[in-house]
Design a protein that fits this description.
By secondary structure, this protein is α/β, with parallel strands linked by helices. 39% of the residues lie in helices and 12% in strands. The chain contains 32 helices and 25 strands. A seven-stranded mixed sheet has the order 3-2-1-4-9-6-10. Strands 13, 14, 15, 16, 17, 18 and 19 form a seven-stranded parallel sheet that branches. A six-stranded parallel sheet has the order 22-21-20-23-24-25, with helices on both faces. Strand 23 (729-732), helix 29 and strand 24 (748-752) form a beta-alpha-beta unit. Helix 12 (348-359) runs antiparallel to helix 13 (366-378), helix 15 runs antiparallel to helix 16 and helix 16 runs antiparallel to helix 17. The protein is globular.
């Protein structure tokens, strides 16, 4: 294709005015600055301003009764990612390129350069082709783990519905020299580089780079793509107001480099005329030298990728490193990196197999012994794990970290004295190690040293198996266990309840303790999660083997547990599914806290067990019916005692799965919402755990907005509930940042980054109370919905009360059945009220014990 001429870079400076529309340019500059700060995928999105004929973004889907989205599998179907994008609104992003057999060598160069320029990025790659045989596509598959072949007539078919929300269209004549992260963060229109013509005019060429937001593509653009040729698409984009101009560094024409001029250092994508890339056709020069670096064989490419420093994408690393070459010895650090990827993705047996061979007769590899010990712990091979973690402590650089894991291991096995000693050893190695300090505090008092006065006999107690938070751990996990106990009576303390952490191994003594109780309550909380305190006994958080579960004789109730797998999270379902079947068969009552969890768990069960799974709302959502002190009554105005505040909460665990490439967009949009809401009420930040405060720091640094912080992780349960009862609105990302205030009668708006938030809103028939963190108009939607709540707050509170009635009726019906199961009196005779509950003490610890695998 002939391209308009432009003054060569070697002779004349590039004009500065290669941007249009100042607002869009500012948005792109902000995205580029964020990428330069190495915040992967974190760039501010442009404001959403749709043309009249653009497709509007869909609201968060109502997931309550809908079937699951199709899981995408890359390799092992059992390791498929949990795909709930329809629920969370998460963008599907792909690179794309059109090639035929003649252009295939150029495509391979593009794939190599893409991986080496952005080693931490691995999105799907749409390989558009006119009908290539599988044998021709195999060469591309060897370079990229996520090749998606698709029949197409031309590269402009990337504008059509491909199943992706954002498509970055490249070409086999391109070489990627820099990071494309700023392009992944773009959110509006179609971005492209207008190339200068001979008369000074600028036009978008059909064979150039495009960043396509599918929902913005109009019928006129599709018609132009079908027509093709002579810049038709560029003209249609310009006429529709969809063009987002990019700087020439994202599509720099190699033909502009004359007189051996070097490639500008800022160049991100270098493009060659495809007819000049044939054998013997390419003249020498810096541009072609830049391209020749990627004209290597597969082995050299794989070696180059593995040798890169810095973060690498797990899938790309495994694809390039495995299988290790036969007959040669792979570098120890590379083997450890691969084993670490296996461990993080739940393939603990593969990690153990790799590292066992490496560390044989090698006590001088502390990092390998540490990773091996953690992987063995996840396989419940505790004695071997302890031996390897002890070997890791010989290095001063890793001693404290290894001792922290040893303390966790000993605690899991009920050896609190050993755990305390290990934590002390870790503090001797590094007095500033927070994890060792937390385990030192947690295990300072042996179990049973403090007993309740007048404790009931074991046969009159209920055993409670749950995640019990202490110190500065998650505030929601502190409130939840007490809320569960409040459903069964006013005494929620140790006199009537035998506490058993869900993570501790159920061995023979523990089994005997459980069986001696009146009954066993497991839950609530999102315990169906594979990577929090992983174990091979169950595949979820309760550390109990199937044969031990089978010998439980006390009545067993699973109460308000949630399926908490993240959107995009990969895990192996076999062990979990087998344990789940045994658990459902054994349980006299099996209640999950939202219909989304009910549906997901039923998918993993045989037909004869599915009907045993029922709905039991989280008890935090009916707190007003459990504690009369939380019911503000109708009252005048907004009800007595409410502060003129709005609370915001965000979550950062597994941030990549929550935000994808949209964190910068989320931050910019919420900053705008905070400013708008702040004109009507005081906006404060509710931190459920210390890590949540990242939002406050980022908001102040990036957007100059400061928020006062309410550290809920330091509060007692009563104070947490009182704070949520007194505010006017809560905008929360954590599940319990929505459920606790809702249970206290306070209106909520959920920031949906996890399916469970949408599941809860579906259960109360208020899906419009949720906004996806990926929503392009997030700021405007939050401000609008917050204003509606604040303008008619009394009606909003009444709506919350009305929504609670159904949850309470379901809970009461289930409790009647459970009272018969456990032989308990009805704690709510004639009235859904009980005396005020026993509350947890304020947090005293200074550090958070990390019970998860690091």
């Amino acid at each position: 294709m002939n391209t308009p001429a432009e003054p060569p870079v070697g002779r004349q400076t590039e004009p500065a005015a290669d941007r249009a529309q100042a607002v869009r340019a500012a948005d792109r500059a902000q995205a580029e600055r964020a990428a330069d700060r190495a915040q992967a995928g974190a760039a501010a999105g442009a404001q959403a301003g749709a043309a009249a004929d653009r497709v509007q973004p869909a609201p968060v889907a109502d997931p309550g009764r809908s079937g699951p989205a199709a899981d995408r599998t890359h390799g092992d179907p059992a390791a498929a990612a949990d795909d709930r994008r329809a629920v969370t609104g998460k963008r599907r992003i792909a690179f794309a390129a059109y090639t035929d057999e003649e252009r295939m060598p150029g495509l391979l160069v593009l794939l190599r350069s893409l991986a080496l320029a952005d080693p931490a990025v691995c999105e799907d790659f749409l390989l558009l082709h006119p009908g290539l045989p599988d044998s021709a596509i195999e060469a591309a598959r060897r370079l990229h783990p996520r090749i998606v072949p698709r029949r197409a007539e031309s590269r402009l078919d990337a504008f059509r519905d491909t199943g992706y929300d954002t498509v970055i269209a490249l070409g086999p004549g391109m070489v990627v020299l820099g990071s494309l992260l700023p392009l992944l963060a773009l959110r509006t229109g179609v971005a492209a580089v207008p190339q200068p013509g001979p008369g000074g005019e600028r036009a978008v060429l059909d064979d150039g780079l495009f960043v396509i937001q599918r929902q913005d593509v109009t019928r006129a653009v599709l018609d132009a793509a079908a027509e093709g040729g002579d810049g038709a698409v560029g003209r249609a984009l310009t006429e529709a107001g969809l063009l987002e101009p990019l700087g020439t560094r994202y599509d720099f024409l190699a033909g502009r480099l004359y007189d051996d001029a070097p490639v500008p250092a800022s160049t991100v994508v270098l493009r060659f005329e495809e007819d000049l890339l044939g054998e013997g056709a390419a003249p020498a020069g810096p541009a072609h030298e830049a391209r020749e670096r990627y004209e290597t064989d597969d082995e050299a490419f794989r070696a180059a990728y593995c040798a890169l420093r810095g973060p690498k994408h797990p899938e790309l690393l495994l694809h390039c490193a495995l299988p290790f070459p036969e007959g040669g010895r792979a570098p120890v650090d590379l083997v450890r990196q691969v084993a670490e990827v296996h461990r993080q993705q739940g393939r603990y047996d593969e990690a153990v197999a790799l590292l066992t061979a490496v560390v044989a007769d090698r006590p001088d590899l502390p990092r390998c012994h540490e990773t091996l010990g953690i992987s063995l712990m996840a396989l419940s091979r505790y004695e071997e794990a302890e031996a390897h973690l002890l070997l890791a402590t010989v290095s001063p650089d890793f001693a404290a970290r290894a001792y922290g894991q040893l303390a966790r291991l000993a605690w899991l096995l009920g050896r609190d004295a050993d755990a305390h000693a290990y934590a002390r050893e870790g503090l001797d190695a590094d007095p500033a190690d927070g994890n060792c300090h937390a385990w030192y505090v947690r295990t300072r008092t042996a179990p049973g040293a403090v007993t309740a006065t007048g404790s009931a006999p074991a046969g009159e107690q209920l055993a409670h198996v749950a995640l019990f938070a202490d110190g500065q751990e998650n505030a929601g996990d502190k409130v939840l266990p007490e809320a569960v106990r409040m459903c069964f009576g006013s005494d929620t303390g140790p006199a009537r309840w035998h506490e058993r952490s869900v993570h501790r191994l159920v061995d023979e003594p523990a089994l005997e303790e459980l069986n001696s109780r009146r009954g066993i309550v497991v839950g609530g909380g999102g315990l169906f999660l594979p990577d929090t305190a992983p174990n091979s006994n169950s595949g979820w958080q309760w550390n109990i083997a199937d044969d031990v579960l089978a010998r439980i004789t006390a009545p067993l109730a699973v109460f308000a547990v949630g399926y908490n797998v993240f959107d995009g999270q990969r895990y192996r379902r076999e062990r979990f599914a087998a344990s789940l079947r045994a658990l459902v068969a054994k349980s006299a009552f099996f209640g999950l806290r939202n219909h989304g969890s009910v549906d997901r768990v039923r998918e993993l069960l045989p037909d004869e067990l599915r009907d045993r799974v029922r709905y039991q709302p989280c008890p935090t959502t009916v707190a007003r019916h459990l504690d009369p002190g939380l019911d503000d009554g109708p009252g005048p105005g907004d009800g007595p005692g409410r502060d003129d505040t709005v609370l915001i909460n965000c979550a950062y665990d597994r941030a990549g799965l929550r935000f994808g490439h949209d964190y910068g967009h989320f931050l910019a949009e919420t900053a705008a919402a905070v400013r708008a809401i702040g004109e009507r009420a005081e906006v404060r930040y509710a931190a459920h755990m210390p890590a949540d405060e990242k939002f406050v720091h980022d908001l102040r640094r990036e957007h100059g907005t400061a928020l006062p912080v309410e550290p809920l992780y330091l509060f007692s349960n009563d104070r947490i509930r009182e704070l949520y009862r007194r505010t006017r609105l809560v905008i929360g990302m954590r599940g319990h940042a929505g459920m606790i205030p809702f249970g206290c009668g306070t209106p909520i708006i959920s920031l949906v980054s996890h399916p469970k938030l949408a599941y809860f809103l579906s259960d109360i028939d208020r899906p419009d109370w949720g906004v996806s963190v990926h929503d392009r108009a997030l700021g405007a939607r939050l401000a609008e919905r917050a204003a509606a709540v604040l303008d008619d707050h009394r009606a909003a509170v009444a709506d919350v009360h009305g929504r609670q009635e159904h949850l309470w009726s379901v809970t009461r019906a289930n409790l009647v059945e459970l009272q018969g199961l456990f032989g308990l009196p009805d704690p709510f005779p004639g009235s859904p009220r009980v005396p005020g509950p026993r509350t947890a003490e304020p947090a005293r610890g200074l550090h958070l014990p990390d019970t998860r695998t690091k």
